[in-house]
User: What shape does this take?
Amino acid sequence: MHLLLSLVDFVLHFDKHLADILQAYGTLTYLFLFLILFCETGLVVTPFLPGDSLLFAAGAFAAAGLMDIRALWGLLLLAAVLGDSTNYWIGRTLGPKVFHRTDSKLLNRKHLVRTQAFYDKHGGKTLILARFAPILRTFAPFVAGIGQMPYRRFLAFSVTGGVLWISLFALGGYFFGNLPTIKQNFKLVILGVIVVSLLPTVIELLRHWLSPAKASVAE
Assistant: This one.
């Protein structure tokens, strides 16, 4: 529970933490941001690290002249793409080894085949939408690797989603993060950022759930 509360505090007060890090470590802050984003997207075991809030807060500090927005944008995009690729290759390496049994209810080869079929059909859209959904963006590239999605196709959608994600949140923080209203209500803004980042996935899930129902009514 203490760890959870510390994590919530870290996310909601990320601007304060980042200010302390910048003051103490200067340009090394770029490395810390890179590592946080890389781990958040690249390691299945760290989906709890801040992503959207990190981008927004970093963009706001860049607007205040404490960081360079061009270097920040490029570095964070590199972290996101490398993280995705690392996660993909972990899934691709482990998938055939884990899903080899035919008698297991959870980890049998039928599930691997279904995952492959899903990513053949919906993989690109899934990877782009998952970029905007905390936790899901950590698992999507891992599952894409398990599903043996062709790497070139995966990389194209990973870069596309990364450019959209980094641009939206980092540049959003850069242009709007230092407005008085935003600074005075930063907690609410971060919560709003998280909610907005989840909307595309929620909408897509609702469309997916409602489609069978509409089809049934039509019949």
